[in-house]
Structures are given as C-alpha cells and as structure tokens.
Task: inverse folding
C-alpha cells in the first residue's frame, strides 16, 4: 500500500465510500466506511473545513452507532485546511463501536503529502480508548505525544519523512496491547531524521514486548535498517517483517542473510526495492516457507535508472 | 470509395490505417504527405479525405511553423502557436478541393486549441474541470489562482499534444510551490523529457510558465483522479462515428498519466468494476456528447477522468488525432483504424452525420 492508494480494504474490511449526498448505501456484512470531501471552496488557511465536518457529521448521524471501521480521507485541501482532530475527538460518544481508524487517506493527487497539516495524532488515542487499530498519514505538523492506551493493537504511521521527535513520543507511550508497529521513515529532505540507533528499544524488543509484526518501511537508508534488524533480538518474536518501499538492495540482502535466522517468519515484505534479480532470488531461496514479497523491482533500467528513491518521498 | 490520407508516410498511424483499408478490401489509400501539403500540393478533388497528425516529423514541424522557422532540437518546446496556425491553414486548404474530409479542419482547429475546446464543451454542459480566464504569464497565473481560490491547477500550453509542456502545479501557504512536469528547464530553452521533474522553487516555475505563455496557456483546476491500486487512473476513449468503441486505462503514480511518461496501461475491467455500471454508463454518455460537439470528425479521442470517489467524471482533453492506441480492440474485435473503416463501409458514419 502506498500514499497513492485510497485503501480498498482496511483491517480486512472492504472500504465503501460514504456519498456526499443521499442515503447510506446498502452493504452486506461489515465494511469500513470512508468519509472524504476534497472539493471544498473554503480553503481558508489554518481552518478546519466546515464543508468536510458537515459531511462527517452527516455520516455519524446516519451510521455512527454501528461503525467499527472508518477511513478519513481528504478533509478539504489538507495543505491549507488543518485536520479536524478536535472535531473528530468530540464525536467519540457517537462512534461508540469504533475499533479501527485510518486518519489521512489522502493521495498525491489530492495534496502533497509533505504539506498535509495533521497535528498531534495521539489526540485520537486519547479520545478513543477502545480503538484497536490506528493508521495515520501525515507530513507537516505531524506529531505525537506520549499516551497510555490499553487496547491499541496496531499502530501504523505513514510519512514521507518521519521525525525522530514523533518516534520518541511513540516510544515514551505505554501501549501494552501493541502487537503491530509500522513506521514509514521517509527521507531527510522531508524531515525524516530517524537513525537505526533511534530504533534501539524497538529492535531490542523492550519497547513493545508483545510485538509480532514490525514494518520499517519507505526508508532512505533501508540497507542500514536491514543491517540493524539482522542482529536485533526483536526479530525472534516476529511473525511478519517489512522492509519494503525503501532503497533496499543487494547490500541489504547480504546483511539479512549474514544475520540471525529468519526462517521462523510467516512473511517478509521487501516489495519496491533495488535488488538485482540474483539478489531477490537469493533471499527467496534462503527462506523456504516464508512468504517473501520481492515484487515491484526498481532496478529496471527504465526512466529512473541510476536514481535511488523511496516509494513515497514527496 | 477513394481514400486520401494526409499524414507523414513513414508514421505508423498512416501504415496502420492503410493496412485497415486494405484488410477491408478497399483500394490502397493515396497518401498525401504533410510535407507536400505544406509545399503547396493540390487538394484532392473527390473521394474521402483523412487528415492525420503531422507530428513526430522534424521537417514537417519546421514547415508548419512557416518561413524563417528554425528546426526544433530533440524534445524542444518551440513555436506551438505557429505550428497550430500552420496546420489549420494547410488542413483547411487541402480540404477545400472537393474531397469530403473525415475530420473537418474546423473541428481540428478547435480540438487542437485547449482553450477553444474547453469553451465548446463547457458551453454544451459537458463536465470539464473549471478553467481560469486567460493568463499571459506567471504573475497573472498566480493572481488568477488566488482570485479563484484554487491551490492546484494544470497549466497546459494551448496547443500542446500529449503532456508536452504541461505542469501539475500545487501551491500552499508560506510560499510553498511544487510543479510536476515533463518540462526540462535549461539555459537553452524548454525541453520535454520522458521523465517527470518536480520543481519546488517559484523562480523555476515562473521561468517555465513565462517561457510557455507567449504561445498561449490554458489553465484548469486540478481535480484529483480516482485511484486503482496504488495509481491514479484515467481513460482514453476513442469515439468513432458517434459511439465509444475503444477504451484504454492509463495509470500512474504521478499526476500525469500519459503513457509515454513511463506509465502503464491499467485494467479496464477493474476500472469498470470500481466505477460501477451507472457511473460507467454516464461516462460513456459524456463521451458521446463530446463527439457530438465535433460532428465533422469521424473519430475523437476523449481523455476522461473519474474523480476521486468515482461518483463524478470530467473530460480532461479531446484529441483530434487520438486514435493511436495499438492493440486495443472494440467489442467487434476491430482496432481503431479497422473500426473507422468499418464505420465508413457500413454507412454508420454517414448515417451518423446526415
């Protein structure tokens, strides 16, 4: 999945768009509703789009009581209209069954990701103590404050450049139920300044003892991340590891293969990479029984030959 | 049925159309090279006249731009307005001898001017992205964007083809700016690249826009497209004799979906499924309405986008020479050229216009 997606499924449920007009569409079985409104005239700087919140309120009126899964897309022009975090937090009593939230499903065609004004997303956890899955995407003014949250099982942070201060606040949080953590590290040009050393407590397994799924994705220095992961104690407790969407190449393969055994993994996600054919074949061959995703090779000799970039760096 | 094709003889467009005519048992069409047309060749006096693209030929490009024009360097953006004027004048002259044009030069003139084409579609109530009033430079562009309160626009040379010279321009408070474009800015001039660049300084963007502006600009609001998987998608729909017969999905991880920019053809079945039958039918009806605004054209190529959320669609461009989509077949199993020939032979084309 990338920034370019509007996720077609979220936490295993089909995503269904909430229409701007008319009744709630009839659906069979549980779905994840998607609420978005990019086409707004009120591009007043620093304001929440009243047009977006009107759509969100109408959704909550119609379906709030039953909704378990929710995807929040464009809230106006996200480079100008700030994310309606407080408004969303205030809706918590009317979304009593919400368990999985994706806040920020905005594509590059709707807003430059690095320009998205999101704010401190830990506010969402404070407002929704029963939340189990939180996925957030952001660029500018993308922050987190240490929280304690008893139920959060999966946290995913998507960014073209994740700052260390964000990571530090996540690490200072108490998330006893956390089994899945996905961080999109991004590039330095867009504020991504996290080094492998900053990830030490995650890699040691001490930050989140229950961790079973770890993604360190979209990394400008993916080989260095891979080298750090290769010797990291946390790996033995993982079922799924993702080092995808970054600049991972044959050097990263070498680092992984020289490290601890990975054959206990269920899945190793390396898609969008710069491995040679031999490199990707060798990692697949070395891990029988592991689902190794080496799709979307970038060393194609195509128009971008020679350049190395993460999948999402804008 | 005697057919004459104005085109560049070595171009695959001419070859493919010729093959389609022969395959249908017609006589080999006479090919009237653009360079001869531009050198003053006599117009055909009877039969049917197909006018195809003068593009992809450097010598023809110089001739189109008229006396004193210099040759464009590879990829150079040069003299779009003059080339357009030259093409329209030559097409008009060559269609004036008595042969019946399969694409009316008056239609070509409008189709190859994005401002005129947009105005014609908008006047007919066809969904198009809103456009800014005429702008003649960067400062005026920004003022008009501010006036309209738009932060995201496509800036297009009025007479460009493919994505030539097009900028996907986004701005945000604090002076932030980002333009994604195939344009390469060099001290020597502007060039189209097969690779997109992102310009993030106002000075660079202003320079590009100001260099493009003298040949005319058309600026539309940038509407976010629907997505399939990890790519935005739009459609090229070829409408032949009034009916949408061929469609190809263009998918991209950038705002520009043109297939020569490293983008991929997408999955039409997946797009139709995502859009749903009602939205698909509405989009095809729009394509028919577009073609009906160009009744003198046997074919038009409509670039149609579903907007983010799939509920609405809009026409991004209409192409006079938009029928080159190799390998895509109609429901009847014909490629675009065979379908055009079929429309002529079966009488569907004449039935359509008369």
Result:
């Amino acid at each position: 999945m990338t920034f370019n997606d509007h996720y077609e499924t979220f936490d295993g449920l089909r995503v269904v768009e909430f229409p701007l007009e008319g009744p709630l569409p009839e659906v069979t079985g549980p779905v994840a509703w998607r609420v978005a409104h990019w086409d707004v005239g009120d591009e007043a700087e620093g304001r929440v789009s009243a047009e977006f919140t009107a759509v969100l309120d109408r959704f909550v009126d119609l379906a709030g009581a039953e909704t378990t899964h929710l995807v929040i897309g464009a809230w106006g022009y996200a480079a100008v209209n700030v994310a309606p975090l407080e408004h969303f937090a205030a809706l918590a009593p009317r979304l009593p069954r919400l368990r999985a939230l994706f806040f920020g499903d905005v594509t590059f065609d709707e807003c430059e990701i690095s320009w998205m004004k999101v704010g401190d997303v830990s506010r969402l956890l404070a407002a929704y103590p029963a939340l189990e899955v939180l996925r957030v995407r952001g660029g500018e003014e993308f922050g987190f404050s240490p929280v304690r949250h008893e139920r959060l099982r999966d946290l995913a942070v998507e960014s073209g450049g994740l700052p260390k201060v964000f990571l530090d606040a996540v690490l200072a949080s108490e998330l006893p139920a956390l089994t899945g953590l996905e961080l999109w590290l991004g590039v330095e040009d867009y504020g991504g300044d996290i080094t492998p050393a900053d990830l030490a407590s995650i890699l040691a397994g001490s930050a989140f003892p229950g961790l079973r799924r770890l993604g360190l994705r979209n990394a400008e220095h993916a080989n260095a991340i891979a080298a750090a992961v290769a010797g990291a104690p946390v790996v033995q407790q993982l079922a799924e590891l993702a080092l995808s969407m970054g600049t991972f190449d044959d050097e990263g393969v070498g680092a992984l293969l020289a490290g601890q055994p990975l054959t206990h993994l269920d899945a190793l996600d390396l898609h969008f990479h710069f491995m040679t054919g031999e490199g990707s074949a060798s990692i697949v061959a070395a891990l029988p029984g592991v689902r190794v995703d080496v799709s979307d090779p970038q060393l194609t000799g195509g128009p971008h030959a020679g350049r190395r970039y993460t999948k999402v760096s804008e | 049925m005697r057919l004459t094709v104005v085109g560049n003889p070595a171009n695959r467009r001419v070859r493919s159309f010729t093959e389609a005519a022969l395959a249908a048992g017609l006589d080999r069409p006479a090919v009237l090279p653009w360079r001869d047309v531009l050198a003053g060749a006599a117009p055909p006096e009877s039969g049917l006249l197909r006018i195809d693209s003068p593009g992809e030929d450097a010598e023809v490009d110089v001739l189109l731009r008229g006396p004193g024009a210099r040759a464009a360097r590879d990829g150079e953006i040069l003299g779009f307005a003059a080339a357009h004027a030259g093409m329209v004048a030559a097409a008009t002259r060559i269609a004036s001898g008595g042969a019946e044009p399969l694409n009316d030069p008056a239609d070509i003139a409008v189709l190859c001017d994005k401002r005129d084409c947009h105005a014609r579609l908008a006047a007919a109530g066809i969904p198009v992205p809103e456009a800014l009033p005429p702008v003649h430079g960067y400062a005026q562009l920004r003022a008009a964007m501010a006036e309209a309160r738009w932060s995201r626009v496509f800036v297009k040379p009025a007479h460009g083809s493919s994505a030539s010279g097009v900028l996907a321009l986004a701005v945000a408070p604090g002076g932030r700016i980002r333009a994604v474009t195939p344009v390469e800015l060099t001290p020597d001039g502007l060039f189209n690249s097969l690779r997109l660049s992102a310009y993030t300084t106002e000075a660079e963007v202003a320079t590009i826009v100001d260099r493009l502006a003298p040949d005319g600009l058309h600026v539309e609001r940038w509407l976010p497209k629907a997505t399939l998987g990890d790519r935005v998608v739009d459609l090229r729909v070829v409408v032949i004799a009034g009916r949408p017969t061929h469609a190809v999905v263009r998918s991209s991880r950038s705002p520009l979906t043109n297939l020569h920019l490293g983008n991929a053809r997408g999955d039409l079945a997946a797009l139709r499924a995502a859009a749903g039958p009602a939205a698909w039918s509405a989009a095809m009806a729009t394509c028919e309405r577009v073609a009906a605004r160009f009744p003198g054209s046997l074919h038009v190529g409509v670039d149609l986008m579903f907007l983010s959320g799939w509920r609405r669609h809009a026409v991004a461009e209409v192409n006079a020479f938009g029928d080159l989509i190799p390998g895509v077949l109609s429901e009847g199993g014909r490629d675009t050229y065979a379908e055009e020939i079929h429309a002529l032979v079966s009488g569907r084309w004449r039935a359509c216009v008369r």
